């Protein structure tokens, strides 16, 4: 059961990014926010919304490249039809076109070759997709191998 309340997505994302900053810096990386949406009030379950953003940031660090420090960028912007767009982008290992079709499925894990340091059960992105869908939104992915990944979340603005 979701406990829906009006949440300022810009404020929530700013706080999440600040909390996550230490994790990124531990890997020699950086995180930046560009929260340009003028209206970012969304009706969400704040705990699940936080978990969604945190999960995407955590994956960005987990799947970072070994040759460059992780660089994460979170943005928000207004869309027409009373919608908000949030993007979480990284400069990590990327996801192949083939794997992009399956990453939101339960238990699917991208093959990371001989890297054995990536832990998980393949549930994170399935959870992210389910939560965004439950909130009346949509999530898509754009990715290029060895260049990075961008998750694009679209959520309806609060009607109140």
Compact overview of the structure:
With 160 residues, the protein is an alpha+beta fold.
Q: Which descriptors apply to this entry?
A:
7 strands; 160 residues; two-stranded antiparallel ribbon; single chain; 5-stranded mixed β-sheet; 4 helices
Count up the helices.
4
Strand content: 25-35%
**Largest sheet composition:** 5 strands, mixed
Structure class: alpha+beta
How do the helices and strands line up, and which of them pair or pack?
Blueprint: E1 5-8, H1 9-26, E2 30-35, E3 41-44, H2 46-62, E4 71-79, E5 83-89, H3 97-100, H4 124-134, E6 138-144, E7 148-156
Parallel strand pairs: 2-4
Antiparallel strand pairs: 1-3, 4-5, 5-7, 6-7
Helix pairs in contact: 1-2, 2-4
Description:
By secondary structure, this protein is an alpha+beta fold. Helix content is 31%, strand content 29%. It is built from four helices and seven strands, in the order E-H-E-E-H-E-E-H-H-E-E. Helix 1 (9-26) packs parallel to helix 2 and helix 2 (46-62) runs antiparallel to helix 4 (124-134). The longest helix has 18 residues, at 9-26. The protein is globular, with a radius of gyration of 15 Å.
